[in-house]
Specification:
The complex is a heterodimer. Chain A is an alpha+beta fold. Chain A has 9 helices and 17 strands. The chains are: A alpha+beta, B mainly alpha.
């Protein structure tokens, strides 16, 4: 099939055709333009007490109406007695009726068993997911769940699969947005365990997560946790985890520690030649780097200059969807989703290379 | 265990506004302005008219807010007002086709071809059934999340997802019908 069937292309085409950058709410202008509406809202004198609904007397003059009414009462009576018999202790109901409720954040909901869920703004859940079972359905957004211990399994269902927990605390984040640069649609579920363990399961696979572990689940992919990806070298996994911690903490010093500063210093000073595997950018990027940092006197000064110019703006969540290793096992690239702001995500593809006897981050 | 609330829920803001607090209504205005402009654009096919419609929608909402009983349903309620306002606007003028930006004379061939493709996409979107068109425009007008769309259209996020997928399939079919097959897009 041609590109017309490519979803990414279609996303881009629809964006180009429909997207609007210049729509901005301006409440002050609206207020100035609509003084009467504002007056109606803010003036308490305008408030109208609601009248009780008018009760109409129904006269039953016609005989057939009386007969019909008697029939309805008789049927209702039979149905009522039947239900009472079914609900008596000797005849417990065979099917429990599910009364579902949808909750939207920000709010905190406490379940009858003492478990609780905190919903951030934009999050929503539906409770319960299944009659007689602990748990709920995760519909959207970021939630944090604390499961009461010793009361059996607690299951959170979602379009991406289900999360089963036993006495634990975990976060779920249903990311649904567009890459702010490519306008590519981004959808995933992140599950992060704070305490205890959970099992994340969908049609593609199952992953058990322990404390401080995190799995990312796509609509059509198995739960992925790079920390448990045995195809990756252990040291590489450490480096990826260190990058995550540094970016989520907004700590440029820790981030720079993942780069080979000795090598970068030699590169900047022209003592090393350009190697795309060891330096993530192109030759023009290297030239700009040399122009901007060529005057440093030591690797330590270069590291400090990098830190000063890193431009880290606070902490932001980052999810690793996949890590691909080259055939020779010396180069790795990850596919990540990073929050630029509360409502905006960006796709990043950091890279690592094995040289000088270690794995080093070569591109962010 | 805390996730700090970033914003208040619709219900809290509606209650505040119903008690005469304009800041509550202001927060709702900021939250729903762009989705309502997008929804109006889906009805009217004209961005400037859609902006005007949104202004009127909030005026109606401001006047009638005290009649809203289910405060959690502010989004769908506002969406309903928007459709009514747009219907009234369409009554006084014939239905406006989506604005197709006509390329000016002397435009480069490549740019012209690109405009043609985008126009084809717009035409396909406006050929969709109203419900699907609303979804597509809400999704791509300002990149609203499925959760946000579900708040305005009173659908579950899963339903939004399913309908978006169906709408996109239909767009692909319409594009193929109009001769914008794979070769056109690769050009």
């Amino acid at each position: 099939m041609g590109r017309v069937n490519d979803d990414q292309w279609l996303d881009e085409a629809l964006n180009e055709a429909i997207h609007s950058d210049d729509t901005r709410p301006d409440f002050e202008t609206w207020k100035a333009d609509h003084p009467e509406a504002v007056e109606m809202l803010t003036s308490r004198t305008q408030r109208q007490e609601r009248r009780p609904p008018e009760i109409r007397r129904i006269s039953m003059n016609a005989t057939f109406i009386k007969i019909a009414a008697a029939a309805v009462i008789a049927v209702a009576g039979i149905v009522g007695i039947t239900r009472l018999r079914h609900n008596s202790p000797d005849n417990p109901p065979t099917t429990e009726r599910i009364v579902q409720e949808t909750l939207t954040g920000p709010t905190t909901h406490t379940f009858a068993d003492g478990s609780s869920v905190v919903l951030a703004e934009g999050a929503s859940i539906r409770t319960p997911a299944t009659a007689g079972k602990r748990g709920f359905e995760h519909l959207a957004g970021r939630i944090e769940v604390a499961v009461a211990k010793g009361k059996g399994e607690f299951v959170v269902t979602s379009p991406y699969g289900q999360v089963k927990a036993l006495g634990t605390q975990f976060r779920m984040d249903m990311v649904d947005g567009m890459d702010s640069q490519t306008r590519q649609q981004v959808q995933l579920l992140s599950v992060e365990v704070l305490e205890g363990s959970v099992e994340v399961r969908n049609a593609k696979g199952t992953r058990t997560l322990g404390e401080r572990q995190n799995a990312v689940v796509g609509m059509d992919s198995a739960p992925y946790d790079f920390r448990q990806d045995e195809t990756l070298p252990a040291r590489l996994r450490e480096r990826i985890a260190a990058m995550l911690e540094a970016l989520e903490a907004g700590d440029p010093s820790s981030w720079i520690a993942n780069c080979n500063i000795e090598y970068m210093y030699k590169l900047v000073k022209g003592q090393e030649s350009y190697d795309p595997q060891r330096f993530g950018g192109n030759e023009a990027d290297l030239e700009r780097l040399r122009q901007g940092f060529g005057d440093v006197a030591s690797p330590q000064e270069l590291a400090q200059r990098f830190i000063d110019s890193a431009g880290f703006k606070g902490s932001r969540k980052l999810y690793v969807r996949v890590v691909e290793l080259s055939e020779d096992g010396k180069h790795a690239q990850a596919g990540c989703i990073r929050y630029k702001s509360e409502n905006s995500v960006v796709i990043t593809r950091p890279q690592w290379h094995f040289f000088d006897n270690d794995w080093w981050q070569v591109d962010d | 265990m805390r996730i700090e609330p970033l914003e208040q829920s619709d219900a809290v803001l509606v209650e505040a506004a119903q008690q005469g607090r304009l800041d509550g209504f202001g927060a709702l205005y900021e939250r729903y302005h762009n989705p309502i402009v997008a929804l109006a654009y889906a009805q009217l096919g004209d961005r400037h008219l859609a902006e005007d419609a949104a202004q009127e929608v909030f005026a109606v909402a401001c006047r009638d807010l005290r009649s809203l009983r289910d405060r959690d349903k502010f989004g769908p309620w506002l969406g309903g007002i928007c459709r009514n306002v747009c219907r009234q606007m369409l009554r006084v003028r014939t239905r406006i086709a989506p604005l197709l930006e006509e390329p000016s004379g002397g435009i480069a061939d490549e740019r012209f071809a690109q405009q043609e493709r985008w126009n084809a996409v717009r035409r396909a979107v406006w050929e969709l059934p109203a419900g699907e068109r609303e979804l597509i425009v809400l999704r791509y007008f300002d990149g609203f999340s499925q959760a946000k769309i579900s708040q305005v259209l009173d659908l579950t996020p899963a339903a939004v997802n399913g309908r978006l997928t169906r709408a996109k399939r239909r767009i692909v079919k319409l594009l193929k019908r109009d001769g914008f097959g794979s070769a056109s897009w690769d050009a």
